[in-house]
Amino acid sequence: MNLKPKKQQLLGLLPNALVQTHGPRHGNARFLSFDDGPDPEYTPRLLDLLAESGAHASFFVVGRKAELHPAVVERIVAEGHLLGNHSFWHHQFAQMSLREQVVELDRTDEVLAAFDQHPFHRIRPPQGCLSLPLLLHLARRCRSIAYWSYDSLDYQHKSGAELAARMHKHPPIAGDIVLMHDDGDCATDALRTLLPQWRASGHEFHALPPEAA
């Protein structure tokens, strides 16, 4: 489960200020992150679970969904989680020009700024699609990209119980940024089993640091 494809390994060689693939490896911290929300049905249930567990996380939200479900975004911010930029429409970045990609990211920053008063937000492109032109553009603008070191593969599972069993067998290690999704119940169902076990083992769950203004 703790998959680190070649792309992640290469990105891990870049400065942390530009691309972060994992957090500090010392200590007990893990970093849960959720893509593709906010969802008015599934995200609140996940937020309930995180609050019960005393865990904080990072939510890489789709700009258009944030516009449609502002109360969910407000709750994410109010409860101490990080808002991240996951593009405006969640289109396939591999099929878009650099200009189109940048327009999506800038538009989402504007939407999210109304919720957390931060002009810029850490970026996670849809499907992790990070081309060299986009990487260079973001580097020139001193933007921060948040990748991951542990792909839960929750999008491949129909059952939260199956996912929990696999993640229990191959758990994230200290410093891992865990990729999950909040546009369905699979991650929440798995974490309902896993979080109490992990917390009993001394694991802590933090949001990623925000992008510097």
Structure description:
It is a single chain. By secondary structure, this protein is of the alpha/beta class. The chain contains eight helices and eight strands, in the order H-E-E-H-E-H-H-E-H-H-E-E-H-E-H-E. The protein has helices spanning 6-11, 42-53, 63-68, 70-78, 98-116, 132-140, 160-169, 186-200, and strands at 19-20, 29-35, 58-61, 82-85, 145-146, 150-151, 177-181, 204-205. Strands 2, 3, 4, 6, 7 and 8 form a six-stranded parallel sheet that branches. A two-stranded parallel ribbon has the order 1-5. The longest helix has 19 residues, at 98-116. The mean pLDDT is 93.
Query: How many helix segments?
Result: 8
Radius of gyration: 16 Å
Strand proportion, as a percent range, falls in 5-15%
Question: What can be said about the biggest beta sheet?
Answer: 6 strands, parallel
Mean of residue pLDDT? 93
How many runs of DSSP E, i.e. beta strands? 8
Helix content: 40-55%
Distance between the termini: 35 Å
Identify the overall geometry: globular
Quaternary arrangement of the chains shown? single chain
Describe this protein with a few key phrases:
213 residues, alpha/beta, 6-stranded parallel beta sheet, two-stranded parallel sheet, 8 helices, 13% strand, globular
Short description:
This protein has 213 residues and is an alpha/beta fold. 40% of the residues lie in helices and 13% in strands.
